[in-house]
């Protein structure tokens, strides 16, 4: 009898709030300067902007950042500026603050950064970022054939 009541309660809960793909995705627009192309794709909340771009086959080089570097876990953090993006101002203000390692990596390409520069690997998608627009500058380093 208890199991029957639990099953009815679970069914009622699931019927009252169906899961929607729209609840877990947002719209992300990439302006690819080298290709002179603008592409809008869905992004999964919780993914990084880099994961989203690579999932959809966009030519955004780079590797996913390890956990954010700090003194408690010594995560490796981002490793290159290949995934440098310029974030539209209205969305830049909604991003989490930049970590030490991201600042360090962007410092290596200082002559090409702007006031809204970030690394795509360090931008975690949230519902507040729905509609985010970023530009991948032509000046990004390309380490594809780096030896």
Structure description:
- The chain is α+β, with helices and mostly antiparallel strands and 147 residues long.
- It has helices at residues 2-16, 49-55, 89-92, 100-107; strands at residues 25-32, 37-44, 84-87, 117-119, 132-136.
- It has a five-stranded mixed sheet with strand order 2-1-5-3-4.
- Strand 1 (25-32) and strand 2 (37-44) form a beta hairpin.
- The N and C termini lie far apart (67 Å).
Q: Judging from the principal axes of the Cα atoms, what is the shape?
A: globular
Estimated radius of gyration: 19 Å
Helix content: 10-25%
Order of helices and strands: HEEHEHHEE
State the helix count: 4
Mean pLDDT over the full residue set: 82
Low-pLDDT runs of 5+ residues are 1-6
Structural class assignment: alpha+beta
What are the key terms here?
147 residues; globular; 23% helix; 4 helices; alpha+beta; 5-stranded mixed β-sheet
């Amino acid at each position: 009898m208890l199991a029957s009541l639990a099953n009815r309660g679970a069914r009622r809960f699931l019927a009252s709030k169906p899961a929607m793909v729209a609840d877990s995705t947002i719209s992300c627009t990439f302006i690819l300067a080298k290709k002179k192309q603008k592409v809008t794709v869905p992004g999964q909340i919780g993914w990084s902007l880099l994961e989203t771009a690579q999932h959809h086959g966009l030519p955004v080089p780079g590797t996913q950042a390890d956990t954010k570097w700090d003194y408690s876990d010594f995560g490796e953090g981002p490793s290159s500026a290949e995934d440098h993006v310029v974030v539209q101002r209205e969305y830049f203000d909604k991003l989490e603050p930049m970590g030490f390692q991201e600042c360090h990596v962007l410092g290596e390409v200082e002559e090409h950064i702007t006031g809204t520069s970030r690394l795509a690997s360090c931008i975690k998608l949230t519902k507040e970022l729905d509609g985010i627009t970023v530009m991948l500058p032509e000046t990004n380093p390309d380490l594809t054939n780096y030896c």
